Task: structure prediction
Amino acid sequence: DGGITQSPKYLFRKEGQNVTLSCEQNLNHDAMYWYRQDPGQGLRLIYYSQIVNDFQKGDIAEGYSVSREKKESFPLTVTSAQKNPTAFYLCASSIPPQQGSGQFFGPGTRLTVL
Amino acid sequence: QQQVKQSPQSLIVQKGGISIINCAYENTAFDYFPWYQQFPGKGPALLIAIRPDVSEKKEGRFTISFNKSAKQFSLHIMDSQPGDSATYFCAASSGSNYKLTFGKGTLLTVNP
Result:
């Protein structure tokens, strides 16, 4: 069953803690993405990776970090430097855009800072 | 220039009616325009997409209309059903650019 999995589904964090959100895909996609979704704000790109061991900042990268050591995995760390981390986080993957198709999303992780 | 403006913000339609959501863009380099459907608490799902070489694409009850000269594209949902109630996002990207620019979404409610 091909797709994108994100874990955990819900995550609670105390202020000052770093947390890591998991994203795994078995679609054999080269590219992976992290988005943040807030009510009424649409989707905002945090980081993306076109290929293993390479990644680029998106529009709102401050306070976040990523790694891409394996093609299947693209974990996102929300650091204590992120001022307002409570949000719905979405991971996506795709083939290279010039080959067509769109981005395919995982089910999301809802992060709440207590 | 990277913006995609989506309207309306919310839409209420009666069952069996036509739902129409509009998007406008400024970047003439955009050449891929997908629409996503998102149910509460779920990730967005790719619904239908169009490239500027065609003016219309239809898949079942969902149709994208594209007007290149006006830099606008729209999603039409025919015979709208309560199960279509969701948030819809338009998006756009250009060439080999990996980044998708999203509209802010339209909350569609279809009343039975």
